[in-house]
Amino acid sequence: MPAFPQRAVIREVGLRDGLQSIRTIVPTERKFDWIRDAYAAGQREIEVGSFVPARLLPQLADTAELVAYAKTLPGLFVSVLVPNLKGAERAIETQADLMLVPLSASRAHSLANLRKTPEEVVAEVARMRAARDASGSRTMIEGGIGTAFGCTIQGRVDPADVLRYMQALLDAGADRVSIADTVGYAGPSAVRDLFEKARVIAGERFWCGHFHDTRGLALANVYAALETGVARFDATLAGIGGCPHAPGASGNASSEDLAFMLADMGIDTGIDIPALLNLRAKLARWLDGETLRGALALAGLPVTYESTAAIEA
Amino acid sequence: MPAFPQRAVIREVGLRDGLQSIRTIVPTERKFDWIRDAYAAGQREIEVGSFVPARLLPQLADTAELVAYAKTLPGLFVSVLVPNLKGAERAIETQADLMLVPLSASRAHSLANLRKTPEEVVAEVARMRAARDASGSRTMIEGGIGTAFGCTIQGRVDPADVLRYMQALLDAGADRVSIADTVGYAGPSAVRDLFEKARVIAGERFWCGHFHDTRGLALANVYAALETGVARFDATLAGIGGCPHAPGASGNASSEDLAFMLADMGIDTGIDIPALLNLRAKLARWLDGETLRGALALAGLPVTYESTAAIEA
Question: Which residues are CB-contacts of B114 (< 8 A; sequence separation ≥ 6)?
């Protein structure tokens, strides 16, 4: 049996992938609360927003302020999503630690969602890399390959395409690459197969999996990915969000359920789960009326649960 | 990486583990409909009820009639739960194909739920085996070890106890043994560890896993179990049921979500998922007002889904 990583990172993407799908505009002060509480609960990687035009996503218009705030918390690794060079320039300006550039392996989804072909995204990453290097910035570039397990518009997506785009992103200068099941089509065998091949191509530079729980398989998919050595996963508190461009898709992996599974497996995430559940209860008040997900908040921790998290609050 | 079984069985336990937790008494004719439709959708193993006193579980009072009906469907393997020798005698009488005898590895849960110590259950299995053999019956005996991953009353359950009871059940004459996460405490690493050890003890006689989705881990647990070679899983349509004696526990693995995961993994279950979803829609009408679970029924099948089931309807 394959060994599991000893440590894993849950990258909180609720402030971006979660809030962008929700009509409620959460005030910046509350987002500060979220970031502060997540940090206090032990989370050390947070995607705080997206550098897209405010008229497209008014929910995320305060991303620059959030980066600035998050950067004041020692040891917090702050990432943002950027769709293009203009966004990348803002990420560099704000000194985000990482900018995630989405590429959709489904050509149909890419055109519908990003208004670019995958090849055009690769070319944009090369321009971002040049801009980053010219500026002397240390902001890392992550190429995130979405619709990697199929697409609601195009249908099947060839794993060979995913791997080809991964190589192209690395060749264009991406420091890191990741794979996302944007529409919730992945099952654990497919994850194991694709992630194994991705590790061969990118080694440690393939560092993150992003799963949606649309068909209840997010945690099984994480388990399969862990067996391939990948040890970083996107998730959102209370499972909020999902891709607004893929009809029927809904629900990211829930951060608190994922934290519980990893803790139960003896994999250290540094997360204090009761503290994360307290933050979730606050989020439920902030997003009153929105659908929240996740099983742990309903069931509670087992009586046998023992926290092993070492929190530097 | 470990290989997966090529085929797996989803044993439908909704008529027993599901309906026993629900106040609504489903009329016998509708249970016939359920069994007939499940069979038509390709399910070939169904636990139709429990031989317990009708005053304790009036929902399951028609178990003998259900066995008789289910036995008319060619190739359907019909099981029942029996708590004691008296129940076993009825199972033998009705010619059920298998009787499942629950043993709780948590002594506290065993006393609270079964009013017997685990050792007393083992002794009862020996008496059942003697009665079965004396009658010339072919009804198989399965010892089902519950609270195998922890207990809401007792807390921790030592895996060594689970394995010791497994050996004792086999020594007492059980033909098969299985492991159940009665209260939803299992995580996939614990499953992998315990199931590997159980296979060493019982080989092919360890044949079934029973997982609750209380903390969202049922399907990850199935995946981990598949890696150990176990290829039979209890599940309930729409995830109904769970242990009524364990506070907070709720929700079996959902048959339709499990069928989808296995199909996606290329593991043949013989199940026609759209037909199973149709049956689920009927069940939703029969159980109007009850909480149903499962993600697939909400999200629908992916556009890429291709049925590979060969149905002999």
Answer: B83, B102, B103, B104, B121
Q: Are A169 and A125 in contact (CB under 8 A)?
A: yes
Nearest chain A residue to B183 by CA: give it: A302
Question: Residue A243 catalytic?
Answer: yes
Q: Which of B304, B305, B306 to mutate to test the interface with A (most CBs of A within 10 A)?
A: B304
| Chain B contact present for A304, CB below 8 A | yes
- Please check whether residue A68 is in contact with residue A49, taking contact to mean a CB–CB distance below 8 angstroms: no
Spot the catalytic one: B186, B243, B259, B279.
Answer: B243
What DSSP line would sit under A91-102, residue for residue? Answer: HHHTT-SEEEEE
Residue A312: per-residue pLDDT: 38
Please check whether residue B269 lies inside any domain of the structure.
yes
Residue A251 has what pLDDT? 86
Q: Calculate the dihedral angle through the C-alpha atoms of A191, B199, A257, B23, rounding to the nearest 10 degrees.
A: 120
Which residue type is seen at A298?
L
With respect to residue A2, please indicate whether it lies within any of the assigned structural domains: no
Locate B298 and state its tokens: 């909400």
CB B70 within 8 A of CB B48: yes
Residue A309 lies in a domain: no
Helix-strand-coil percent breakdown of chain A, rounded to 5? 45, 20, 40
End-to-end CA distance of chain B: 36
What residues make up the domain containing B133? 12-299
Nearest CA to B302 out of B254, B263, B255 is that of B263
B160 class by beta-carbon count within 10 Å (0-12 exposed, 13-18 middle, 19+ buried) = exposed
- The answer to whether the beta carbons of residues B178 and B143 sit under 8 Å apart is yes
DSSP H helices, chain B, are: 28-40, 63-70, 85-93, 107-109, 118-135, 159-172, 188-202, 218-227, 255-264, 273-286, 296-299
Q: What is the CATH number of the domain that holds B136?
A: 3.20.20.70
Answer for the pair B55, B73: CB distance below 8 angstroms, yes or no: no
Question: Is residue A305 in a domain?
Answer: no
Say yes or no: ipTM exceeds 0.85: yes
Tell me if B211 sits within 8 A of B218, measured CB to CB.
yes
Q: What is the DSSP string of A176-192?
A: EEEEEETTS---HHHHH
- Count of Cβ atoms closer than 10 Å to residue B244 Cβ: 14
Q: Which two tokens stand for residue B52?
A: 């317990």
Pairing between strand A232-235 and A176-181? unpaired
Q: Look at residues B172, B181, B241 and name the one whose alpha carbon lies nearest to residue B215.
A: B181
Distance in Å from the first CA to the final CA of chain A: 36
Of B1, B190, B264, the CB nearest to A190: B264
Closest CA to B49 of B72, B83, B76, B80: B80
B189 contacts on A by Cβ (under 8 Å): 4, 264-266
A123 contacts A103 by C-beta, under 8 angstroms: no
Q: Is A99 in contact with A87 (CB distance < 8 Å)?
A: yes
Look at chain B and report how many structural domains it folds into.
1
pLDDT averaged over 10-residue windows placed end to end, chain A, 313 residues:
95 96 93 98 98 94 98 98 98 98 97 95 98 98 97 95 98 98 95 98 97 95 98 97 58 96 98 98 94 90 75 38
